[in-house]
From TrEMBL:
Transmembrane segments: 27-49, 61-82, 102-124, 131-152, 190-214, 226-247, 330-354, 366-387, 420-439
Organism of origin: Algimonas porphyrae
Topology relative to the membrane: Multi-pass membrane protein
Protein's name according to its UniProt entry: Cytochrome ubiquinol oxidase subunit I
Major location category of this protein: membrane
Domain of life: Bacteria
A Pfam family annotated for this UniProt entry: Cyt_bd_oxida_I
Lineage summary: Bacteria, Pseudomonadati, Pseudomonadota, Alphaproteobacteria, Maricaulales
Compartments where found: Cell inner membrane; Cell membrane
Length: 481
């Protein structure tokens, strides 16, 4: 029955859909944990500095959410590596000498670093002392960012390949590892992605804080940690949102230099503009007639943004062979979703500054409603950004060198389609349950006596007498009370 369901479909397209589905599920978890790990390190540092129990309660509240999200990120990431061997074996064979070592470094230096200190961060506060526990928090935060750095280096090389040679058997072989790792698009993609992760976390934390401020409108019932996390999230939004827009502009200019047809598709420029290109705000891409229907734009604004000159000429897709053009409709809309959310984030951040100035940050219910609605916006924005980046690379897996159609394994459509269907069912069941539980934890909110992760009463036998952790444990309990 399943064989007949997928008969006649394109196996390469199904393989692309499968990888897009699994990587989209995976991407939302690191996008949250990268920022959340840093937030937890800041909370723990503030608690050690001030001994204010609200920071400890917030740490214990968010560390439970971090543990679940981190686990789902790890599990969802493992399945993608298998697809390189099952669905994309030709790509793995040809590009493996370059991307294989970089992905191994990600596992050895970053994943092990995270895993090695994660247990201490989650369960070690009462066992290792405040100093080592703080060091573990910093290492987990550093490890999440380092893990993203290696992966983004691999991804960037696929967009702007440098430092390689092509062997007689068609494989890409490394010539200069520094050029491979620090390829032309890597710094921009790294800065843009990490900043997006911090913004994603800020708006999730702010959304949770806004929910509890709206729910507990009787201000005597509002836990002081709720105000604190909302305030910290709004500071992050106000500072990082404008920075992200600047970084996005720089990343776009780099893309125009190395992948011009991607920018042409993002802008909806089917035709060339010799004396200044318009910035299209809205339109419906018409692939059949190669034009943008119902276009609404600002004359010459695209030339001003991309070339800093109102009259600068910009080439269109009419200068690119049809076989080398990316899909315009997907890029056109995913780019606008990403940019639109970015400016909404900027608006909320500026609004929070005004409310802070008016001393209404904790009482402005319209601001709280806006922050609550914007809570998941970072996740939508990073997915839209990823779609823009990856779909814009089509029809290549390695830009200009290896086409997607030449990278897939020689599999029949029913084989790929059946595994895709299995992924969809399992992912929605397993990760749906995990997300539901995370939302329940967020709904509960921080408490005055936040319990944190449960620790076993049966610990190892201590033969060293009283440890530093034991000495500080009584002090912590006293301060929590």
């Amino acid at each position: 029955m399943l064989v007949g369901l997928f008969e006649g479909l394109d196996a390469v397209l199904l393989a692309r859909i499968q990888f897009a589905f699994t990587v989209s599920f995976h991407f939302i978890f690191p996008a949250f944990t990268i920022g959340l790990a840093s937030y937890l390190a800041v909370l723990n540092g503030l608690y050690l500095r001030t001994h204010d129990s609200k920071y400890l309660n917030l740490f214990k509240f968010w560390v439970k959410i971090f543990a679940i999200t981190f686990a789902m990120g790890v599990v969802s990431g493992i399945t993608m590596s298998y697809q390189f061997g099952t669905n994309w074996s030709v790509f793995s064979d040809k590009a493996g000498p370059v991307i294989g070592p970089l992905m191994a470094y990600e596992v050895l230096t970053a994943f092990f670093l995270e895993a090695g200190f994660l247990g201490i961060m989650l369960f070690g506060r009462s066992r290792v002392g405040p100093g080592l526990h703080m060091f573990a928090c910093i290492m987990v935060a550093f490890g999440t960012a380092l893990s993203a750095t290696w992966i983004l280096s691999v991804n960037s090389w696929m967009h702007t390949p440098t430092g390689y040679a092509i062997a007689e058997n068609g494989q890409f072989v490394p010539v200069d590892w520094l050029e491979i790792m620090f390829n032309p698009s890597f710094p921009y993609r790294l800065a843009h992605t990490l900043t997006a992760a911090y913004l994603t976390t800020a708006f999730i934390v702010g959304g949770v804080g806004a929910w509890h401020l709206l729910r507990d409108h009787d201000h005597d019932r509002i836990h002081q940690g709720t105000r604190t996390m909302f305030s910290m999230a709004m500071w992050m939004a106000a500072i990082v949102a404008p920075l992200q827009i600047v970084l996005g502009d720089l990343h776009g200019l780099n893309t125009l230099e190395h992948q011009p047809q991607k920018v042409m598709a993002m802008e909806g420029h089917y035709e060339s503009h010799p004396d200044g290109a318009p910035l299209y705000l809205f339109g419906i891409p018409n692939e059949e007639k190669q034009r943008l229907d119902y276009a609404i734009g600002i004359p010459k604004a695209s030339s001003l943004i991309l070339k800093h000159d109102l009259n600068a000429p910009l080439d269109g897709l009419d200068t690119i062979p049809v076989a080398d053009r990316p899909p315009v409709a997907i890029l056109f809309w995913s780019f606008r979703i990403m940019v639109g959310i970015g400016f909404l984030m900027l608006f909320v951040g500026l609004w929070s500054l005004w409310a802070r100035y008016r001393r209404t940050l904790y009482t402005n219910r319209w601001l709280h409603r806006a922050a609550l609605i914007m809570g998941p916006s970072g996740l939508v924005a990073v997915l839209a950004g990823w779609i823009t980046t990856e779909v814009g690379r089509q029809p290549y897996t390695v830009w200009g060198l290896l086409r997607t159609s030449e990278s897939a394994s020689p599999l029949d459509a029913p084989a790929v389609g059946t595994s895709l269907l299995a992924f969809i069912i399992v992912y929605f069941f397993v990760f749906g349950a995990g997300v539901f539980y995370i939302l329940r934890l967020m709904r509960a909110g921080p408490h005055v006596y936040e319990g944190g992760l449960a620790e076993s009463a049966d610990g190892p036998i201590r033969t060293a007498g009283i440890t530093p952790a034991q000495q500080s444990q009584a002090k912590d309990k006293k301060e929590e009370g």
